Amino acid sequence: MADKHKVFMQTGQIHINIFGILRRLNFFIQRHLYSPHIPANS
Asked: pLDDT tier at 37 (50, 70, 90 boundaries)?
């Protein structure tokens, strides 16, 4: 039971990391979409 709980906690951390990355990507995509004068490679 303890092992299952440990695995659940680890997958929870992974999900949090994925959501953080997605939010950051979404922010960059929106900034580039709404600000076309900013070069995409910056």
From this structure: low
The sign of the CA dihedral 25, 31, 34, 38 is: negative
Query: Which token pair is 33?
Result: 């979409």
Q: In angstroms, what is the C-alpha Rg of the chain?
A: 17
Angle at 31 between CA 25 and CA 35, to 5 degrees: 150
Look at the block and give the residue holding tokens 């995409």.
40
The answer to whether the pTM exceeds 0.70 is no
Q: Any residues with CB less than 8 A from the CB of 40 and at least 6 apart, and which?
A: 32
